[in-house]
Specification:
Helix content is 1%, strand content 44%. With 554 residues, the chain is mostly beta strands. It has 4 domains: 80 residues, Immunoglobulin-like; 82 residues, Immunoglobulin-like; 81 residues, Immunoglobulin-like; 209 residues, Jelly Rolls (Sandwich). Strands 27, 32, 33, 34, 36, 37, 38, 39, 40, 42 and 43 form an 11-stranded antiparallel β-sheet that branches. A 5-stranded mixed β-sheet has the order 2-3-8-7-5, with no helix packed on it. It is flat and about 85 Å long. The two termini are 30 Å apart.
Length: 554
């Protein structure tokens, strides 16, 4: 969520007999905060791109979408078109919201229609090309494509679609078959094709992780399809359990579990009596997160506060900076809050779970401005006068964990400082308790786009909410998860709060939710804050979050 802070500068210049009023207009950025739409399954509002996405069921008419109301958070805002009413959202609806300047917004709709086309003796899954309105099925070399039976066909909304040809009349695919598909009085012409492949069974892709591999193959639909695997050099093959195999026509996929990390394996696919050639693959390494128990720390030269590595420790993953904090590194790097006498991240040798010490992120304040205690993968990038700071988040990373495990303890109170600006849709007061937040993500963030450095690509300026990155919607995020710790419970990945005592050490496991199972990350982000809304200078100025024994699960 991104929202530019509002600054109003007023000045009056008295002249002899007149007033010269050439002052700039204030910056007032409007945001859409709520939209009500008939039949909508879900509505997403992206403040960065100023886009509203309406998710419709497939049985809805996307050309006649009834928007009941649109709520905007600025009373002075005017829209260039009337938004309440019926709109054709088969293409994006663009409009302008005006305050003292114009801001372009877009409302778009997504309607995911389940489409399929299958034929008897098909190999693999059909290719459904919505953009070009074509569907392609594959059959083995023994099939007669001039006399095939179509076993299923659906190219439009369920219960709302008619076809110009009966399914039983579609048999000769020598030159393809055209069919008109009509729904909601709108007709599209689709072309159906059948292609012949020489292989009877073939492995198309192997996607190896640290302790599992996802293997995709094509075979003949209607026969028994399976996989066998073994460690390279072993004599015997192991069958993959049918519970771990899914099929879509002649395409079948296995999740092979229980593999060793960083190990060579072989796999074959089986369709009926046919076996594919052997395919070799190597699993990923199960790389541990460096200095996860924070045993390697050292005092900043000439100071009484710590940096979270020790160049002289003799341990490889503790000798370099992986973890940073808002303290900064003073004379050894970039000056942070500690340079102003506000230490917000400590080493705690008295209260810990593993080893000699833990880290305590402790929120503080200076002249009524909140400074949230924090710890993160990356490096502090500088102060913004006395009003905020800049951080470069992320560290290079190329493996794919499934979760983050860590131990935390939290002490907090009611919010005694409320910032001037909060995220859209969030309302807080002094009666609300503070809460801690831990964000976990892997992705392919390009520092040229996100403003950071090659090692820590995501640049955040806490005084400019337009620089904030929401990993839930960010395009370069491969997977993410999150933990919010309250005074009386916790929530994982946005789920309902689980009640419990968070004032004692507790183990938490944050699952990574992958939106792309194939892409390899370039960086990892772990961000821990004693005050969730610290970037908005809101929270309890005495909140304390202890962190220890951080571990990646593969």
């Amino acid at each position: 969520m991104k929202k530019i802070l509002t600054y109003i500068f007023l000045a009056v210049f008295a002249l002899t007999s007149c007033v010269d009023n050439d002052l700039p207009y204030p910056i007032v950025v409007p945001n859409i905060t709520a939209v009500i739409v008939d039949e909508a399954e879900k509505i997403n509002i992206d403040y960065e791109s100023r886009t509203v996405t309406i998710h419709l069921p497939e049985t809805s008419d996307i050309r006649n979408v009834a928007i009941r109301s649109v709520q905007i958070d600025k009373d002075i805002a005017k829209t260039s078109i009337e938004l309440a009413g019926v709109h054709d959202l088969s293409k994006p609806l663009k409009f302008t919201i005006t305050t003292y300047a114009d801001y372009e917004w877009t409302i778009m709709a997504e309607r995911n229609i389940t489409r399929y086309f299958t034929v008897q003796g098909q190999m693999g899954s059909s290719v459904i090309d919505v953009y070009n309105r074509r569907a392609v099925a594959m059959v083995g070399k023994k099939a007669d494509i001039s006399n095939l039976k179509v076993t299923s066909l659906k190219l439009g909304p369920e219960g709302k679609t008619t076809y110009s040809r009966d399914i039983d009349s579609m048999t000769d695919f020598t030159h393809g078959i055209s069919v008109d598909v009509t729904s909601f009085d709108y007709t599209e012409t689709w072309n159906l094709y059948v292609e012949v492949t020489e292989a009877m069974v073939e492995i198309q892709k192997v996607n190896p992780w640290a302790h599992m591999a996802i293997v995709t193959a094509i075979g003949v639909s209607g026969v028994e399809n399976n996989f066998q695997y073994r460690e390279k050099g072993a004599q015997d093959w192991s069958d993959v359990s049918q519970e771990d195999i899914t099929s879509d026509g002649g395409t079948f996929q296995a999740h092979i579990k229980g593999l060793k990390a960083d190990t060579d394996y072989e796999v074959v696919s089986i369709s009926g009596n046919d076996r594919s050639p052997v395919k070799e693959f190597r699993t990923e390494s199960a790389t541990p997160i460096p200095n996860g128990s924070f045993e390697h720390t050292s005092l900043v030269a000439g100071s009484s506060y710590y940096k979270f590595y020790d160049p002289d420790c003799g341990v490889e993953d503790g000798r370099y900076m992986f973890w940073g904090s808002g303290n900064g590194e003073g004379s050894e790097g970039v000056e942070g809050s500690a340079g102003m006498g506000i230490v917000i991240t400590y080493v705690d040798t008295e209260d810990k779970v593993d080893g000699r010490q833990s880290v305590r992120a402790q929120t503080s304040q200076l002249a009524g401005i909140l400074a949230a205690g924090n710890l993160f993968t990356g490096q502090f990038a500088g102060l913004v006068n006395t009003s905020g700071g800049k951080v470069n988040f992320g560290r290079p990373w190329t493996t794919r964990p499934t979760a983050l495990k860590l131990y935390c303890k939290y002490e907090t109170g009611r919010m005694d400082i409320i910032g001037k600006t909060l995220p859209p849709g969030v309302s807080l007061s002094n009666s609300d308790y503070d809460r801690a937040e831990i964000k976990f993500a892997i992705g392919t963030w390009d520092y040229k786009k996100y403003g950071g450095t090659p090692a820590s690509p995501i640049h955040i300026n806490t005084t400019d909410a337009s620089t904030f990155v929401d990993f839930n919607t960010d395009a370069s995020t491969i997977a993410n998860g999150g933990l919010v710790i309250y005074n009386d419970g916790y929530s994982l990945n946005g789920a309902d709060k689980v009640s419990g005592n968070t004032g004692v050490w507790k183990e938490y496991v944050i699952p990574l939710e992958y939106r792309d199972m194939d892409e390899i990350p370039t960086h990892i982000v772990v961000s821990c804050a004693a005050s969730r809304y610290g970037d908005y200078f809101t929270g309890c100025s005495t909140s304390k979050l202890w962190i220890d024994a951080v571990e990646l699960i593969y």
